[in-house]
Design a protein that fits this description.
16 strands; D-Maltodextrin-Binding Protein, domain 2; 4-stranded mixed sheet; alpha/beta; disordered N terminus; 6-stranded mixed sheet; 2 domains; single chain; 18 helices; about 425 residues
Length: about 425
């Protein structure tokens, strides 16, 4: 069923043109008006969707000045410069940046300002916004992955989705579909890309492995659990994947799924809406990854403040953040972004509050709650800031070579352990 906009008292969408977005970057130097910098362009569909939520806050706020939303991106250097030059700003930051900037002293410590709110989120997600035991980021929205399936293909093959409660059951279901239809079992990623990293990590965590130890200072990926996870991914699932999987990213996987050439894929909520946007040739079913023994890759976006924000700005910003994580504002995220091609609204991310199940939006679309549930057992792609360098320079390339058979699983794990520990030990 296509998602329809839920009325939550949002006011008309305000628009910020490109010139205003450029000059707003220095707003902290010229005025005390609070800015809200998102990581998407303000004129995009999702930018306009977020603007509606900001407008609803402004309509309710007793402040003299409205919060001004400005577009942005995830460029680390730009964000670092703006944290210093535009302190009167609430920043949307990926969790990995919250830890990086938190450790380096560039963010405001929010520990004392948000004590009760911790209970609104799964503990592991809340902890991703902390560094040295201090809170620097408040969870706002994000994504988690689920196992999506083509209901029509499963029905044709006589497979009951409720019986898929383990990886063995998943493999059995894929075999049945392949025998009864022309579809392959699962869309898989193997190309040297960001996608192969987060995709494979879900199996490593699910099999009981990890990337680094609890201290974040030692690489522990070289383990029997990780080896088993990689073997299962490459040799078991690989035998049921699309023929080009070793060279495909998540983009190609979604195309295979949409064209009904594979029956399963692991995707976020956009995997559901992609089928809806393209005429809904079949109904999409959703299975939480923890049901089959995997951990869901997560990408929480946090709300953070610069360390040098004024006291007046901090007070307004805290009020704004509290609204953005309120039930009304969280529910409004699922109103989604507008698609002019289809004249419909589709969610692009999910709220993160764990108590959304009994809201009108979730009752209307109960499968969406399964994506929120995925935050309880997360697979964290960048567990510590320095792992980003390991991932970019070694991990992604090495995983691709494993999938193509250019290197062995044992050699890859030894290599990542060696190079990873070298990078993590650097000052």
């Amino acid at each position: 069923m296509l998602l329809t906009a839920l009325a939550v008292g949002l006011s008309a969408c305000k628009k910020t043109d490109g010139a205003a977005a450029e000059t707003a970057a220095s707003i902290g130097e010229t005025a005390q008006q609070l800015a809200f910098r998102i990581t998407w362009t303000d004129y995009s569909g999702r930018g306009q969707a977020i603007q509606k939520i900001v407008d609803s806050y402004n309509a309710l706020s007793a402040e003299d000045e409205d919060v001004l939303m400005i577009g942005g991106n995830e460029d680390q250097l730009t964000i670092e410069e703006m944290l210093a030059s535009s302190p009167e700003t609430v920043f949307v930051l990926p969790y990995r940046y919250v830890q990086y900037f938190g450790y380096s002293g560039k963010l405001m410590d929010l520990t004392d300002s948000f004590t009760e709110e911790k209970n609104l989120f799964y503990e592991k997600i809340w902890n991703l916004g902390t560094a040295d035991g201090k809170v620097y980021g408040i969870p706002w929205l994000g994504h988690s992955m689920c196992l999506l399936y083509n209901k029509s293909l499963l029905e044709t093959a006589g497979v009951d989705a409720n019986t898929i409660t383990s990886l063995d059951a998943l493999v059995s279901a894929m075999e049945q579909v392949e025998q009864a239809t022309d579809a392959q079992g699962i869309g898989l990623v193997g190309a040297e890309s960001n996608d192969v990293s987060w995709m494979v990590n879900q199996f490593i965590y699910g099999f009981g492995g990890s990337l680094v130890d609890e201290s974040g200072k030692k690489v522990v990926i070289n383990s029997p659990e990780s080896a088993d996870a990689l073997d299962f991914y490459k040799n078991v699932l690989g035998a049921h994947a699309q023929p080009t999987w070793t060279e495909d990213t998540g983009v190609e996987v979604m195309k295979y799924f949409l064209n009904q050439q594979v029956v399963f894929e692991i995707q976020g909520i956009w995997g559901v809406t992609d089928v809806q946007k393209n005429g809904e040739p079949f109904k999409v079913g959703v299975i939480p990854l923890n049901r089959i023994g995997l951990n869901a890759e997560v990408g929480p976006m946090m709300l953070s403040l610069p360390a040098d924000i004024s006291q007046e700005g901090k007070e307004q910003a805290i009020s704004f953040i509290r609204y953005m994580i309120s039930m009304d504002a969280q529910q409004a995220i699922l109103n989604g972004e507008y698609s002019p091609e289809h004249d419909q609204y589709y969610p692009f991310r999910t709220p993160i509050r764990l108590d959304m199940a009994d809201t009108p939006m979730m009752r209307l679309n109960p499968d969406y709650q399964l994506f929120i549930d995925g935050f309880e057992h997360p697979s964290v792609d960048v567990p510590v800031p320095k792992w980003q360098e390991v991932k970019d320079d070694y991990y992604q390339a090495g995983l691709h070579r494993v999938m193509t058979g250019e290197t062995t699983i044992e050699a890859f794990l030894n290599w990542i352990e060696s190079e990873g520990n070298r990078i993590l030990s650097e000052p």
